[in-house]
Fold these 2 entries.
Entry 1:
Amino acid sequence: MIKKKECSKLTDMKTNVTGIILAGGKNTRMGTNKAFLAIDGSRLIDKTINIYREIFPEIIIVTNDPLAYIEFADVTIVTDIYKGKGPLGGIYTGLFYSKNNHAFVSPCDMPHLNKDFIEHMTAQTAKYEVIVPKLSEGYQPLHAIYSRNCLPSIKRLLLLDKLKITGFYRDMRVLTISEKQIEPFNPDGRLFQNINTPEDVETVNRLKTED
């Protein structure tokens, strides 16, 4: 683990939730590290960290390339505890190192993260171990809040090589954020969009220009 010093100015923020960024993908379809792609003139990783800094007292990046993120002096950088276990392994690792009981998780390739919506989610952590948006096509488990109480259930799935993220939900107290609740924060329907290919980058930048 590479640990960078905590940023003291974040300690007075109102949330007691950690922000976890998953940046461990192989980027096969993109051919380069997606975190450093420019969207509307700013790198994805900068967009994400800037939003996180406004909300979370602690930020963790889970990555298999820790040296790539060493420029972020106020971020804790960790590598997967269980290698090759995909996003579920990344969630486990981030929660394991989190200093707070709850953590918001998103990947490094979501260009439309909404600060207000994330804060709406963090305000509801008191009674739940999973807080997750759900659209008509299903859960959005990579834009969700998880409690450290999830760690034993996630670990059990990892050791069984059962890597579906929602596989441990039935063991937890889950709050589902409905599509109706999401709508005010998602007027253009792009809130949960991921960047996976060069074509996706072109599309997002074109839409940003049109906006």
Entry 2:
Amino acid sequence: MATTTSPDEPAPALVRYGNFLFRYRNGVFPAVMLATFALLPPRPLAGDWAADRWLDLVGLAVCLMGQGLRAFVIGLAYIKRGGVNKQIYAARLVQEGMFAASRNPLYVGNMVVLAGLFLIHNNPAAYVVGGGFFLISYRAIVAAEERYLRGQFGADYDDYCRRVNRWLPSPAAIVPAIAGMSFNWRRVVIKEYGSFFSWAATALAVLAYQAVWRDGWPGAASALAWTAAAIAACVAGAGLVRALKKSGALRDPAA
């Protein structure tokens, strides 16, 4: 295995934290989100709940932008972010598709989705506490992944880092990066249905929580009814896609 050193080498503590989060993020991230929203209740925009409805729409639009980026990335070139046995792993260095414009476009999409959820919730303290936690956490995960990839791919990875931004996609690199590539919509559905239904259900739950905080239990009955129905639809949609996937009716022909 080739190893190199880099002046951009992250602090060991950050790498250790990143490895911990990589292994346990599916439990830690939802727990932190739930605790943040529960302990820091929603606040109306400029003290006006009517105006806050517009912010809710903006937040949903931001979530869709983040999901759209993730779908675009996965439809062009897939990278297995779950590792092997909850440990960071890469059989090859993925550099095609959006990975030629950003080294972490999926994580950028995640952070955009999170930003949308925080906008819907709209508590200034939650922006600082929750937003700060997720920014630091994703930086730590990326630091751990970079340490692994540098050890795994050596000079090839260092060259990739010199050419491609860590976070924001380079606009000039996007068009040549995706030129001639085909979009695999089946892979998007198969790989992304869980993420989509998870954040959509979370957004609906936040809207329900907001309605209770704004109107009280009796006044929020109507909002609770439609959000519960929408969450049930999300669960049913995820179950349907999972069933189609398991039965083989929905499969990625490129797999």
